[in-house]
Amino acid sequence: MTNLYLDIPTFDAFEKVLDGGVYHALPDDWWVGTSDVIGSTKAVEAGRYKDVNMVGASVICAVSNALGHSDYPFLFGGDGASFACPPDKIDAVRDAMAATATWAVETLDLELRVGLVRISDIRAANRDVRVARYAVSNPVSYAMFAGRGMQWAEDQMKQGNNLIPPAPPGSRPDLTGLSCRWSPIRAEGSDVILSIIVAPRDDRAQFDETVGNLFAILDDSPRKSSPIPASGPDVAFPPPGLHLEAEATKHKEGGYVKAWLKALYIALIAAILMKTGWKLGAFDPRRYRDYTGYNTDFRKFGDGLWMTVMCSAARAEEVEAHLHAAELSGAVHFGTHRQRSAIMTCIVPSITNDAHFHFLDGGEGGYTAAATAFKAKVKRDRNAALTPANA
Questions:
Q1: Residue-range domain boundaries for the chain
Q2: pLDDT in tens, 154-199
Q3: Phi, psi at residue 182, to the nearest 5°?
Q4: DSSP state, 169?
Q5: Residue 51: enclosing H or E segment and its boundaries?
Q6: Under 8 Å CB-to-CB from 2, ≥6 apart: which residues?
């Protein structure tokens, strides 16, 4: 069976996410999946950034394994994920999502809400789901979404519609490939890691102009403000997410201790190879580190702009002043959050293949904190619009 998603041409200039011509409508019989961690703001405030990110990425991994491949459109959002998929394996996808919800609450005490809705139902609500493919490297492209359909699907899920109930207790998804072995990426000196969310209001042309100017500000920095060092991220031993990796695989490895020891052994070998540059069979640590940098999703578009960038404090001030002025003019809503580190959660189907995926988020609040600020502004303006002028 052909993969309609792979038939969409790719582009490699990120600013083209603002070009409606790169987006292609998905068929009516496709489905949109959404997920989010309930109470993620409190979990993040308690310092559980890594746990929240792991659960957010787990849905992408579980669906990838249910489909038998990673060639489907998805978007990582920090405390959740959204995706679209064809109908041929929708029962397996639904089961994977339900099992992931059960795994999240039983192993990490995080309640994961999951939902599925047909694209035909999204279009009946006067929204659309259109997808583009932004190529970050030769083997990896990330989906960009337009049409406001993904946001509608997420909003519906949060209102209690189209929900998938968790699977029975003890159910577990296939999370093979889910890992988080890289060290946190630290900002040095006065630099900051800036999480940015920007969404259009009524005038799309104003939004495009605002975001185009934002790109100009951020692209005028080394590596277009990517937090990933030119030499690639550093590897930590033992990795900070070792216990999470063990929790994801313990049902397949015969218990937590066995899973933890296996993950520790793999991490040790990886750390030695990364530090020495030695090759092992078909695994080239230098090439793997390079492609980790290429394949990191530090900027993306899903009915709005999402970015995790590194910049000077002065550049962060410039970004926020620019977005604030655009917000006052009615062009956008935005949320930002500054922190000193960024963290990665990864899906690695094979260490000898360049098609591995790396999801970046701020290490002390990230997208969850930026979204909190963003939603507060949307709510403020919505309430103001409902309040009589002479009230």
A1: 4-233+286-386
A2: 999 999 999 999 999 999 999 999 988 899 999 999 999 999 999 9
A3: -75, 150
A4: T
A5: helix 49-67
A6: none
